[in-house]
Amino acid sequence: MEGDIAVQRRRNALSCFFCKWKKSVNGLVEVPVTVSPDFSLYERMKIEKAMLTFTKETCIRFVPRSTEVDYLSIENGRGCWSYIGRAGGRQLVSLNRDECIYNGLIQHELNHAHDLAYSLHSAHTY
Question: What is the CATH number of domain 29-119?
Fold first, then answer.
């Protein structure tokens, strides 16, 4: 762990071809996601609102996971952190319900999970 970024030990420059979420033929980047039932309805609404910001500002669409192998799993973990980019398989995004359920923090961790810079504005050049 480095700050709020979980370091992927098995990834290196040679094996990182699949580290990005792919843009589909329609130009959108669909990222499958699950949100833990441990969150209250209010907390889930805040998480969904943060995800909708990406819909308004970027080509990124967080979509409910169906059978996708690679997906984000947003959970009530210890602290606020995520891996950078697509890590493969079930990818934990930790949003502690007592510390992290704020729009800016949620967006920040989703930025990491998508491998965006620290500002949504950078996504306009995606």
Answer: 3.40.390.10
Question: Where do the domains of the chain lie?
Answer: 29-119
Q: Please give the model's pTM, rounded to 2 decimal places.
A: 0.79
Task: Read off the pLDDT of residues 39-68 as tens digits, 9 standing for 90 and up.
Answer: 999 999 999 999 999 888 888 999 999 999
Q: Is 68 a catalytic residue?
A: no
* Greatest alpha-carbon span in the chain: 42
Query: What letters, b where the CB count within 10 A reaches 16 and e where it falls short, cover 73-110?
Result: bbbbbeebbbbbbbbeeebbbbbeeeebbeeebbbbbb
- Catalytic residue of the set 57, 68, 99, 109: 109
